[in-house]
Design goal:
This protein is an alpha+beta fold. It contains 2 helices and 2 strands; from the N terminus they run E-H-E-H. It has a two-stranded antiparallel sheet with strand order 1-2. The longest helix is centred in the first third of the chain and has 10 residues. The protein starts with a strand and ends in an 8-residue tail after the last helix.
Length: 62
Amino acid sequence: MLPLSSPVELDFTRQALRRMLGELGYAYLVLRLGTADPDHAGPPHTPRLPAEQVIEIEPPSA
């Protein structure tokens, strides 16, 4: 599931979504539902540094 808020920020898209909803109100969020195609999984994940290399914990001051 992928939540998208940018489509509802455009007046044209917001009005089109409202018509699709039977003019019951305005869409707050658009959800993209589906499954990933295993043959087109996309690029590999970006490697991440271990937390110990990124976070510094300082002792409390006296």
